[in-house]
Design goal:
Shape: globular
CATH architecture of the largest domain: 3-Layer(aba) Sandwich
Number of strands: 14
Strand order of the largest sheet: 6-7-8-3-9-10
Structural class: alpha/beta
CATH superfamily of the largest domain: P-loop containing nucleotide triphosphate hydrolases
Distance between the termini: 35 Å
Helix content: 25-40%
Order of helices and strands: EEEHEEHEHHHEHEHEEHEHEEEH
Largest sheet: 6 strands, mixed
Number of helices: 10
Radius of gyration: 21 Å
Length: 291
Amino acid sequence: MELIIDNVSKLYKGKIWGLKGFSIKIDTGILGLLGPNGAGKSTLMRILATITKPTEGKVTWNGFDIIKYPNKVRAVLGYLPQDFGIYPNLNAIEFLEYIAAIKGLGGKEARKRIDDLLQVLNLTDIKKQPLSSYSGGMKQRIGIAQALLNDPKLLIIDEPTAGLDPEERIHFRNILSDLSGERIIILSSHIVSDIKASATSIAIINKGQLVIYSSPEKLIIQAAEKVWELNIPSKDLSKIRNNYLISSSVQNKNGVQIRLISDKSPSADARSVPPNLEDSYLYFISTQREQ
C-alpha cells in the first residue's frame, strides 16, 4: 500500500493558503501528523478523505488519482473528523448499523463487527442507551467505532483523543498499535504525547507547510545539543520566557528549573540535556518561525 501526496495546496477565500506545496510518500504504519492548531492538518485530512479537493497538486492511492477516482480510496477508507456528528435519538447499535448500511455492509457479518467494536471500545454496557446521554469521551469512542466498521486499509483520524480521559487515551493508543499491521493510519494531533506512543513516522506541519518528515528517532537526533536545563530565580522566569522557548518549568526550593530550546547555551549555568520528542517538535516549529 502506498499513499503519495504530491505538491498539494489548498487556497481558501480571502487568498488564504490552508496548505502550500505539501509533499510526502506514506507507507504502511502509523503517521503522526503534528502541528499547532490552524496549521493545516484538518485541511490535509479532508483532502485525503476526498471531502475537499486541492487547489493544486495530486494525491494517489496505490497508483490511482483519488481526485479523479475517489471511490478507489473511499472503499477502503475509515475517517474520524475532528467535529464528529451523531444522531442523538439513536443508540450505539442503531447508529453503527446505519453507518454500516451507508458503507455497504450488512447482515450477520456487520452485526458481529459492531458487537466486536463495542466490546473493544468499552461501550457494550451502554450500547442501548441513546447517544444524547453519552459523555464527550463516549461519543468519541462511537466515532472511532464507525471509522473502523469496514476494517479500513486507510484510516484517517483527526484529534481522536479529544474528550478522552487518561485511561481511555492509553486504551485508544493500544488499539491503534494493534491495527497498524497491513494498513496506513494517519493520526493528527497537536498533543505530542498522543503521537510519540504509537507513530512509526512523524510529519510536522505549520502554516500549511511541511516542516519535516522523519522517524521519531531521527527527529530527536536532529534536536541534539539544542535543549538546556538550568535553575533560575522565580522573578527571572518572565524575562527568560521573552528570550527563549521554554518547553517545561518546575518550581523547586531554589526557584524554577526550566528546560528550554536554544542553538547556544543560554548561560554558564545551563547544562545540555538529551532532547525528547516534544523538545524536537518545539525546536523545528521555532526554526520555521525564525526562517
